[in-house]
Amino acid sequence: MLESLxxxxxxxxxxxxxHNLFYCLMGTIVGTLIGVLPGIxxxxxxxxxxxxxxGLHPTSAIIMLAGIYYGAMYGGSTTSILLNVPxxxxxxxxxxxxxxxxQKGRAGPALAICAIGSFIAGTIGLFGLVFLAPPLxxxxxxxxxxxxxxxxxxxxxxxxxxxxxxxxxxxxMAIVGLIIGTIGLDPVTGDARFTFGSIYLLGxxxxxxxxxxxxxxxxxxxxxxxxxxxLEQRVLIPRLRELYxxxxxxxxxxxxxxxxxxxxxxxxxxxxxAPVIATYSSYMIERKISKTPDDFGKGAIEGVAGPESANNxxxxxxxxxxxxxGIPFAPPTAILLGALLIHGVSxxxxxxxxxxxxxxxxxxxxxxxxxxxxxxxxxxxxxxxNILRIPKKILLPLIILFCITGMFTVNNSVFDIWVMLxxxxxxxxxxxxxxxxAPLLLALVLGPKLEVAFRQSLMISxxxxxxxxxxxxxxxxxxxxMIFLVIPLIRVIFKKTMKGGGRQ
Amino acid sequence: xxxxxMIGLLAxxxxxxxxxxxxxxxxxxxxxxxxPWAAGGATDLIFRALAATTGQYLGKAVVVVxxxxxxxxxxxTEGMKAQPDGYTLTSAxxxxxxLPHQVKTAYTYKDFEPxxxxxxxxxxxxxxxxxxxxxxxxxxxxxxxNPNMITVGNSGAGGGVHLVALAFEAATGxxxxxxxxxxxxxxxxxxxxxxxxxxxVSPPEGIEHVKAGKLKIIALFAEKRFEMFPDVxxxxxxxxxxxxxxxxxxxxxxxxxxDVIKKLHDAFKQGMDDPVFxxxxxxxxxxxxxxxxxxxxxxxxxxxxxxxxLLKEIKK
Lengths: 504, 316
Hints:
The complex is a heterodimer of chains A (504) and B (316). Chain A has 504 residues and is mainly alpha-helical. Chain A contains 22 helices and 2 strands.
């Protein structure tokens, strides 16, 4: 513990040189911009800037590239809140209440609470990174295929009914997501499934295309349908004193932020779709324990504060397996791994002892970077909130334009744009008939991983289903799932017997 | 009629004049390398580093464009359809000779002109250091007695290292239980956690853990030993004539003029020899292996045939 603090102090002397501060600032600014623009994610951003770091000292290079990654997590919520356009997996949930807040003229507080929550969660995540890195990384290794499978099942059952509206509709959407997730090459045999001979479908349907289509384009279409007079209107005119959260907002948010930070950190250590599970879980928990669960989906600040914090601490936690095991659990950290290799640093069990300056320097720079991001983001809140002053007839076509260009930059693929537009049409119909997009997206992310883990497990166990039950972690998740499913049932039966039949 | 002939003649004339002219001036603009995978993978990184040093020798910048999707089919199809003028190259890696056997692709390696091979990494099997098998012989003896019991992870069904494992089975007469993962990273994680018995990988995957003593190389499918681990013998030394690995090079669309290919080849060769690139490659633990157009073409042809045979075996 003390030793860690000493190392960290050395790290600060490295990170606080003018040189490294500059690269930290550059990284976080670029990251914020990348996060704000829908479509362009941290992956593309880091990859594009790797060659620009060839001439730099490895520590400076990684400080800058890491800054892009966590900087993008700060910016990612902006378009979700203002325009209902999620730029990546992590900001899907923020759309639900963030966008509703913006519609009610509270875009400012929503944006500000994201920055504040991200800062607090990022800092908590960093403390975890400093003190718990090696033991936690080892613990993460205990997750093999059967553990994954059970975790995914748990995630599915517990997280599907995101807003708690109609369970039936949520499950229907989850099944549609599962079906879409089967398109592409079979992960075990390598055969093409449901591709109809098209090479563009071999790699499956791009998640970002579905997310932007269902939420962003669908939202634009809903707006277009409204009477012409409404298109002339501005969405809302936020007054200056309403731009920042009130004391009450902060009071309501502090619990969700701390819980979100904890959830995010724990989930971030587990290989797999951490941002999705972390943000969905945080949202579900906040809704469950809220005194006013009906506010959720209608602009509850807790529904923004929790998931955004979870997202950020998950992002910090993701550095642990990268640095300690040399194994990236998430695509952006995979790119960072590549960048480290190019600079002659191989992350792995020996990294901290072989390159202490780099490890502690980068960790210290993350503290500084988190602070820079807070200072950088809060003044931008009025600027971003003012985007909503643009009349809808000008704003809506611009959103479509942004979505199309943003989509193209993800994979340089025109096919993805068509997928996005098609799903935009479907998203419009779903909105009209009150089907939610969030369970579909959850299933689309978890489904393929669930399938792979299931098949891997059975291949290892030679078809023995007992494999899932005689491993403790796996068993625990399955039990938790069972309890979660059975409790409401018992409650209903109990109520019925109490009331002698009860209501229909 | 006369008009048509005139147009035809004019067109022929323009063509005749422009081809040598173009070649003399090549390159007049930047050269693009299509990477059929997302940014950040081994192929992407190595060619980004090579692009950075080659620009100065070519006289124009070399830019990398990622066209992921379809398990590399999207990128290769686009690379094949590009103008054969030398301005669009594609990075050719094992899947170029694997995927056409698995699904109906619009291309095979024959639709491209080889330019240069840059990297060849030998494949290998890794075990946990505390694994009960101390030598290749013990490992194979156990596998022989217990067919389908040793779980061997790979980075994806039908991918390069999966086929290496299948070929090794065929060469030694054993049967493994192959477990596919989505990439080299997850398969290495699984063996570190003890969820599988062995893993089929290609450097730099797993190298760090071998250095740290967590994993050991049980079978090295290379011509010669690793510089880094001089104590690890190749399987060839142990009496199994088996060498296989991953290669990464550059190809141009079919029909690219030979003198353009030569210019590109010469520039990339110089880029490869550049000390900055050599250092980057060394840091990434990749094994540089230069092959000229002819030798590279032969390599792709023999690999294409080999993978075709292997994949037929799986289907049986």
